[in-house]
Amino acid sequence: MGINKVVLAYSGGLDTSVAIPWLKDNFHCEVICFAADLGQEEELSGLEERALKAGASKLYIKDLQREFLEDFVFPTLKAGAIYEGKYLLGTSFARPLIAKYLVEIAEKEGADAVAHGATGKGNDQVRFEVSVQALNPSLKVIAPWRLWDIRSREDAIAYATAKGIEVPVKKDRPYSTDRNLWHLSHEGADLENPACEPPDDVLLLITPPEQAPDRPTYVEIGFEQGVPRSLDGKELDPVTLVKTLNRIAGANGVGIADMVENRLVGMKSRGVYETPGGTVLYLAHRELESLTLDRNTLHFKELVAQRYAELVYDGLWYSPLRQALAAFVDETQKTVTGTVRMKLYKGSCTPAGVSSPYSLYHEGFATFGHCELYDHKDAQGFINLFALPLKVRALMKQGKEQ
To answer: What distance in Å separates the CA atoms of residue 388 and residue 292, rounded to the nearest whole number?
Structure first.
């Protein structure tokens, strides 16, 4: 394929660092790098210098933290979408946002192609490439891991050394990680054996629950139409809110998910995910919905949440179905406004009170005491009608037996 210019999704890690000279050597093209600031913190330090030294002509860095939360994280939170009951999709919904800007920069620079450092075994290759095809199908996509002769971390380090590239390889941490404002994931090394408990030193954001404070911490989260707006009565911008909640929940050991998941490409993989603030927000949001959504809507939304999670996990953020489900979710969230108090203690996160101006909970109906609003005798007719199909079936069976 004739490639003159390519935009590479660049993290500064080993894979994307060696991808720069490899692309130049194999496609004889200009390489422009793009790094999305999604809250990686110190990982962004010195990124431009490393990219230029490796052979890139320029590096774009964009602070996308607020857009990440408002346009990708919070819609998924409102949906209640959790993949396979544990994974809060931290990597999954970051990829379509990165792809969006890969395409935007490629169009601005007149590039022929975009490239990424995802491996041929993972989900990210699908998420990047499906998103690019949805946004600009005329762009070519180059996936070095599916083309080059590099087959291991050691091969990549040797290639980097031969090219005179310094890469930040931490020998004391052999794990493959992905970090953003929402989560930090760990895979590989001894974690590949699901029979082994993860060592405490895997965790970087969360205090091991056994070492967390001996007294509980309470936080109060205010929601407006399903979106978190305040913490302990103080309105905060989304980035500050999540960062603050990450710190508080992490200190109390909250937000560890250790799971064997089913990858889209067909294999099972084991990962340890740290999502401290996100765990609190999901549980608080669910508690508020229990107060403000009617039974049918709440139960149907649980079905939608599972499908929504699969779409996000599979990289289908820009699909018509995901967008249609998001419209349904937005409709359900019109009354999901209120305050939830959460108790954090040594890894647990439990509700400690919820209130809403749209509450469907009526103490007069729910009380076990005397209530003029509810006549216990009404239940008899309801039960008779509710049981009628079962009663008819039982009479039929009795007739046949006789």
So the answer is: 31
Residue positions annotated with a catalytic role: 15, 95, 124, 176
Give domain status of residue 36, yes or no. yes
pLDDT in tens, 58-96: 999 999 999 999 999 999 999 999 999 999 999 999 999
pLDDT tens digits, one per residue of 85-133 = 999 999 999 999 999 999 999 999 999 999 999 988 899 999 999 999 9
Phi first, then psi, for residue 316 (nearest 5°) are -100, 40
Q: How many CB atoms lie within 10 A of CB 49?
A: 12
Q: Which domain holds residue 371?
A: 363-397
Last residue of a domain, one of 137, 169, 201: 169
**What would the mean pLDDT of 154-162 be, rounded to a whole number?**
89
237-288 per-position pLDDT tens digit: 999 999 999 999 999 999 999 999 999 999 999 999 999 999 999 999 999 9
Is residue 285 located within the same domain as residue 187? Answer: yes
Q: Identify the bridge partners of residue 272 per DSSP, sorted by sequence position.
A: 186, 258
Long-range contacts of 16-19 (CB under 8 A, 24+ apart): 16/117, 17/50, 17/54, 17/160, 17/165, 17/167, 18/54, 18/150, 18/156, 18/159, 18/160, 18/163, 18/165, 18/167, 19/115, 19/117, 19/144
104 and 187, same structural domain? no
Closest CA to 30 of 54, 59, 4: 4
Verify that 376 and 237 share a domain, yes or no.
Answer: no
β-strand partners of 256: 274
**Domain containing residue 128: CATH number:** 3.40.50.620
Phi and psi angles of residue 389, each rounded to the nearest 5 degrees, phi first: -60, -40
- The predicted pLDDT at position 264 comes to 94
Same domain for 189 and 158, yes or no, is no
Looking at the structure, tell me whether residues 108 and 191 fall in a common domain. Answer: no
- Tell me what percent of the residues of the chain surpass a pLDDT of 90: 84
> How many structural domains is the chain composed of?
3
**Nearest C-alpha neighbor of 198 from the set 273, 89, 121, 253:** 273
Write down which residue in 123, 141, 169 finishes a domain.
169
Looking at residue 154, its amino acid is E
**3-state SS assignment for residue 296:** helix
Same-domain check for residues 127 and 266: no
379-402 pLDDT tens trace: 999 999 999 999 999 999 999 887
Same domain, 34 and 128: yes
